[in-house]
Predict the 3D structure of the following.
Amino acid sequence: MSTYVTYGTEYLSKRLREHRYRLGLALSYVSKMLNISIDDLQQYEYGQKPITTEELSKLAHLYQVSPSYFLGGIPIRG
């Protein structure tokens, strides 16, 4: 059973997108590394689809930050 992120979502999409840009990673690379579709990743980045805690953890690990950073926290390395 999937658990969806329900708090901090006002920061989530913007920070996901900005951090990927900052690292210079392509949508196709991130989607391949996490085994998710490019469409899903884009929808997460534009707040069009809720993200699971599992997917958020995977993104945080790949981007080398804590999951709480995407939800409004400070960018602590994860």
